[in-house]
Write a structure and sequence with these properties.
The protein is an alpha+beta fold and about 260 residues long. It contains eight helices and ten strands.
């Protein structure tokens, strides 16, 4: 689920289409979210990850493939990509602490992606961006060079895998839950921190304050470039706009 698919929590008296595209759809009916996914393997991962993650997650109400029903979380998203976050520094620090709790947990039983896969994916997406004149070649090249710092061996931890700022819900200064676990697995801790702070660089210090030690800021910045390059094609092909102010292309211009 992308940031444009975030599960909002305002009360409604009708069926609300939260998101719908060729891969999945999410509907809201009262305080229940119905997630319909064409790939049940993603739903399998989501359900299992939420069951073992040592952080707050939505309650699974029921599952009848291809539909997964989840209870709404209290509070509201920590922020949204392209918008200034109004959450307090303490809330951002609490998010960092929650991520650390996840990363310190036992590894999930299923694998994640490898560094070789990350390199191959990055190369393919950079080639597509240049071939289709989506971005200037120099901008792609410079961010590809920045991304190199992330493509190194790492010690796997339990990662969320798509820890966008809109996937972390807070109420006051407390984290009430984290949503959308279909990309969870064994991965690089710095990747989760990078996705959480993508487009919100000014909040990185707060997140690190909550997370604690063993943070490599250069690697986080490298993952910002990697993520923005790799996500662009998917966003464009699914009707989203990475060129919106404060979104992926702005991140690339700052990074490169």
């Amino acid at each position: 689920m992308t940031r444009r698919e975030t599960l909002v929590v305002a009360g409604i008296d009708e069926v609300q289409v939260v998101v719908a595209h060729s891969e999945r759809a999410t509907l809201r009916v009262g305080d229940v979210f119905l997630k319909i996914d064409a790939d049940q393997a993603r739903t399998d991962v989501e359900v299992e990850a939420m069951a073992i993650a040592p952080v707050p997650t939505p309650t699974v109400l029921w599952r009848r493939p291809p539909v997964l029903a989840l209870a709404a979380l209290p509070g509201s998203p920590l922020g949204r990509l392209g918008e200034r976050s109004t959450a307090s520094p303490a809330a951002w620090a609490a998010a960092g602490a929650a991520v650390r709790t996840l990363h310190d947990a036992p590894l999930p039983p299923w694998p994640g992606t490898s560094a070789d896969e990350d390199v191959s994916r990055l190369d393919g997406e950079c080639e597509w961006l240049v071939r289709n004149a989506v971005l200037p070649p120099d901008l792609v090249r410079r961010n590809r060079e920045v991304a190199e710092a992330a493509l190194r061996p790492w010690t796997p931890v339990f990662t969320h895998g798509d820890l966008q700022v809109a996937h972390v819900f807070v109420e006051g200064d407390e984290v009430t839950g984290i949503v959308d676990w279909s990309d969870a697995g064994r991965g690089d801790a710095m990747f989760d921190l990078a996705v959480l702070t993508l487009g919100h660089e000014e909040r990185l210090g707060d997140v690190v304050a909550g997370y604690g030690t063993d943070v490599d800021l250069d690697v986080i910045r490298a993952w910002w470039s990697w993520r923005s390059l790799v996500a662009a094609r998917w966003l464009i092909e699914h009707g989203f706009d990475p060129s919106s102010p404060g979104c992926e292309f702005d991140v690339l211009r700052r990074g490169g």
